[in-house]
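testing teh design pipeline on a random one, pls ignore if ur not involved
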């Protein structure tokens, strides 16, 4: 049994954050563990409150997990502030954590800030370089490199620029996935590693219930890495998971509703596990 740790914020409505991650990991038939960085009061319409966890208590949670059940992969989502980022980075290095995927969550789809403005530098300098893969969406890509891509070519330029800043300039290895879910007419994603650019030509599924797609994608990638797939294949199968979960068209809540993980289950069990 593979063990996956998610370090993220709680979404009480169950669509994003820790809850989306645990559903994704469980659907992959793996064992899910969680280190919670913040509680959010939110639903499909928006975020009404955030309570950040003390950085010391984040450290206690990480010690409790790593000293007992060592994870095969770690997914990181909402990290709230720079103190939490610094302690997470320190503990991941201390425990020599493997297969780290960072979704650099900054602003919710509904427009609320989930990362303090002061924390972007700590995220860029301390957490991103130790990840095997980082998965910025279009607005996060702009925050990281100044380019707000509107086409596949601009996504390639941005992915290359972020790779250079985060990995090459720090003498580290890793990969960048610029996600195109916010593009109007396609759901193309672009992966950049040390030498190659891969383009995933996704078509846009007609479903406005996309709350938690980024959380789900990064958790599915972490599961696939834990299963021994390389980064390119891990992203490929994670996108298939998202497509199935979106195609099932569950419609909960008055706003942008959650994904249907039960629908993704069929494909995962047939293609990956059997
Ligand atoms: N309507 C859609 N049809 C197909 N794939 C989609 C759709 N919307 C998003 N995706 C895919 O979902 C994944 C997440 O992309 P997105 O850019 O939405 O991330 P995000 O903004 O971090 O997600 P979140 O909504 O959780 O914040 C990507 O692989 C993207 O291509
Ligand atoms: C706790 C938490 N983590 C991440 C997101 C981003 O997801 P989305 O962009 O779909 O709102 C969120 N809303 N809440």
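output:
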């Amino acid at each position: 049994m593979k063990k996956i740790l998610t370090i993220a914020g709680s979404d009480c409505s169950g669509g994003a954050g820790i809850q989306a991650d645990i559903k994704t990991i469980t659907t992959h038939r793996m064992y899910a563990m969680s280190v919670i960085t913040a509680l959010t009061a939110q639903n499909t319409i928006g975020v009404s409150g955030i309570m950040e966890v003390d950085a010391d208590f984040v450290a206690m949670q990480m010690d409790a997990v790593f000293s007992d059940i060592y994870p095969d992969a770690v997914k990181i989502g909402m990290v709230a502030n720079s103190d939490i980022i610094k302690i997470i980075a320190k503990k991941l290095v201390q425990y020599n954590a493997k297969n780290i995927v960072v979704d650099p969550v900054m602003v919710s789809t509904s427009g609320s800030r989930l990362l303090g403005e002061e924390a972007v530098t700590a995220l860029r300098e301390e957490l991103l370089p130790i990840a095997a893969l980082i998965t910025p969406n279009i607005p996060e890509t702009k925050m990281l490199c100044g380019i707000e891509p509107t086409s596949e070519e601009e996504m390639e330029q941005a992915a290359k620029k972020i790779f250079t800043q985060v990995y090459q300039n720090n003498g580290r290895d890793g990969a960048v996935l610029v996600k195109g879910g916010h593009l109007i007419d396609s759901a193309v994603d672009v992966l950049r590693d040390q030498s190659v650019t891969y383009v995933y030509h996704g078509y846009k599924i007609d479903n406005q219930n996309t709350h938690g797609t980024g959380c789900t994608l990064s958790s599915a990638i972490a599961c696939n890495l834990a299963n021994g797939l390389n980064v390119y294949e891990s992203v490929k199968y994670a996108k298939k998971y998202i497509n199935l979960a979106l195609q099932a068209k569950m419609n909960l809540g008055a706003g942008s509703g959650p994904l249907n993980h039960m629908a993704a289950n069929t494909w995962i069990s047939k293609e990956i596990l059997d």
